[in-house]
Design brief:
Blueprint lengths: L2 E9 L5 E8 L4 E5 L6 H16 L7 H9 L8 H22 L3 H4 L8 E9 L2 H13 L4 E6 L21 E2 L4 E4 L1 H19 L4 E5 L6 H11 L6 E3 L9 H8 L4 E3 L10 H5 L5 E2 L8 H14 L3 E2 L9 H13 L6 E2 L5 H6 L5 E3 L2 E3 L12 H4 L7 E2 L2 E4 L4 E2 L2
Parallel strand pairs: 4-5, 4-13, 5-8, 7-17, 8-9, 9-10, 10-11, 11-12
Antiparallel strand pairs: 1-2, 2-3, 4-15, 6-16, 14-15, 17-18
The chain binds 2-keto-3-deoxygluconate (KDG) and magnesium ion.
C-alpha cells in the first residue's frame, strides 16, 4: 500500500479544528488531528508545505520510520507545532493500519487491558454552591470522577469556570481576553470547595482539580497539604514544569497525587519528573506529543516508575484525538484516567464517531481503525475563525501564567 495524497481540513464547528486526511492507493484513508489551540494555522502550514510532500509514495504501515523521519529528519526537533504535525500524520497512519487489517486500533497497541476507559468530567460554577450543583449533575449522569473548578470571591473570572451558564470554552474570537489573578485569594478558596464536595458526595467519587500552572512550587506544596483531608485523585499542573525540580519541592511536602503534562511535547519534557517519581500521572496528549507512536513510548517508560497516564482531553482536542486516546487508554497497562470534556453537538456532527459513554467509562467502539470520520461537506459550513486563549495578570498588572 502507498500513500497517494494528504490534505488538511480546517473547520470551526463551535471552535477550530485542524484535521489531516491521508489517502492510499487502495482507497483506504486515515484521519489525524493537528489542532493547536490559538495557533492552528501554523500547524496547517507545517503540514502542507513541509510534511505532506515527504509522505507521498511511502508505505503507511511504516509508522516508526515515518515518525523518526519527521522528528530526526527535520533537524529542528520538538515544540508544539512540530509535534502536533507529526501526531496528525502518525494517528492517520494508525487509522489506516487498523482499517487495512480490519481491526480496531486498540488491538494494534496490545489489545484490551480493561473493559472501559474511566473518564472525568468538568464541574464548574461561579461560586461553591454552583460548583457543587454542577458536580451533582455529572454524578447523576454516571461520572465516577469529577474535576472541580470554582469562581473565586474578589476575582471577576476564574480558569475553568463558564460565564452566564454557557459551556466552558477558553479560546475566544478577537484579541486575547485578559483576566485578573490572585494566588492568595485562590489558595484560601480551593480547600473550602473540596471540603464541600467531600461532605456532599462522600468518599467514593474521585475528585480532581487543575491549578493550571499558576503556583510556585512552595505555594503548590501548601495547597497539596491543605487538600490532603479531601483525598484528591490528583492536583493538576500545580506549577510550570520547565524547571522540573520544582516538583521535588512539592513532593517533599504533600501526599496529594500530582498530574502534569498537557503542554509537554516529548518524553524529554517529563523524563526527570517520571524517573524521580515526582509525579503520579502523566497528562501528555496524543495530539501535542507526537501521536500514538510517541505516547506509547512515554507510557511504557512511565510504567516502570509507577506513573500512570491521564491524557488531556479538553474540547480543543478534536474527536479524532478523543478516539485515539480511548483506543490508547483501553490498551495501555498503566492507564490512569482520561479527561472527557464533551464536544458541542455541531462538532459531533462534523466528526461522526463510534465512541460512547456509559456509567463512568468510555469505549472507543470496535470498528476497524479509530472509528471516527470527518463530514467534509458539513465542515465547510463552519469556516476557520481566528481565536486566542486568554492571558492572565496579577492584581498589580504583572503578566502571569494563564
Ligand atoms: O487549550 C488549552 C486547554 O486545553 C486547557 O486550558 C485545558 O487545562 C486544560 C484541561 O486540563 O483540560
Ligand atoms: Mg489542565
Amino acid at each position: 500500500m502507498k500513500i497517494v495524497n494528504g490534505s488538511v481540513n480546517v473547520c470551526s464547528p463551535g471552535r477550530n479544528f485542524v484535521t489531516l486526511k491521508i489517502e492510499t492507493d487502495e482507497g483506504i484513508y486515515g484521519l489525524g488531528d493537528g489542532t493547536l489551540n490559538g495557533r492552528e494555522l501554523s500547524v496547517v502550514s507545517y503540514l502542507v508545505e513541509y510534511v505532506i510532500p515527504c509522505l507521498i509514495g511511502r508505505d503507511p504501515f511504516e509508522t516508526e520510520d515515518i515518525w523518526q523521519y519527521l522528528y530526526r529528519g527535520a533537524y529542528w526537533r520538538r515544540g508544539p507545532v512540530t509535534m502536533a504535525a507529526i501526531a496528525a500524520v502518525d494517528v492517520a497512519l494508525w487509522d489506516i493500519k487498523g482499517k487495512a487489517l480490519n481491526t480496531p486500533v486498540y488491538n494494534l497497541l496490545g489489545g484490551k487491558s480493561r473493559n472501559g476507559v474511566m473518564v472525568y468530567a468538568h464541574a464548574n460554577g461561579v461560586d461553591l454552591g454552583q460548583t457543587v450543583e454542577s458536580a451533582e449533575q455529572l454524578i447523576e449522569r454516571g461520572y465516577l470522577a469529577v474535576r472541580a473548578q470554582s469562581g473565586i470571591p474578589g476575582l471577576a473570572s476564574a480558569y475553568g469556570v463558564a460565564q452566564d451558564g454557557q459551556t466552558y470554552e477558553p479560546a475566544q474570537k478577537g484579541l486575547p481576553a485578559e483576566s485578573a489573578w490572585s494566588t492568595e485569594k485562590y489558595l484560601r478558596h480551593v480547600p473550602m470547595l473540596f471540603a464541600r464536595l467531600r461532605d456532599r458526595f462522600g468518599d467514593d467519587v474521585h475528585l480532581l482539580h487543575d491549578c493550571h500552572h499558576r503556583l510556585t512550587p512552595i505555594e503548590a506544596a501548601r495547597l497539596g497539604r491543605d487538600l490532603e483531608p479531601y483525598r484528591l485523585f490528583w492536583m493538576e499542573d500545580p506549577t510550570p514544569a520547565e524547571q522540573q525540580e520544582g516538583y521535588l519541592q512539592i513532593r517533599e511536602h504533600t501526599t496529594t497525587p500530582i498530574a502534569v503534562g498537557e503542554v509537554f511535547n516529548t518524553v524529554w519534557d517529563a523524563e526527570m519528573l517520571i524517573r524521580k517519581q515526582w509525579i503520579d500521572y502523566i497528562r501528555m496528549s496524543i495530539v501535542h506529543a507526537g501521536g500514538i507512536t510517541h505516547l506509547k513510548k512515554v507510557a511504557d517508560f512511565a510504567d516502570i516508575y509507577h506513573v500512570r497516564t491521564g491524557c488531556h482531553g479538553a474540547t480543543d482536542l478534536s474527536p479524532v484525538t478523543m478516539a485515539a486516546s480511548l483506543h490508547f487508554g483501553l490498551a495501555a497497562h498503566n492507564f490512569g484516567i482520561q479527561e472527557h470534556m464533551p464536544h458541542t453537538a455541531e462538532t459531533d456532527e462534523v466528526f461522526p464517531h463510534q465512541y460512547s459513554f456509559k456509567e463512568g467509562y468510555m469505549h472507543p467502539g470496535d470498528e476497524p481503525g479509530l472509528g471516527v470520520d470527518l463530514n467534509e461537506e458539513l465542515a465547510a459550513k463552519h469556516p476557520y475563525q481566528r481565536a486566542y486563549l486568554p492571558i492572565s495578570r496579577k492584581l498589580d498588572g504583572t503578566l502571569s501564567d494563564w
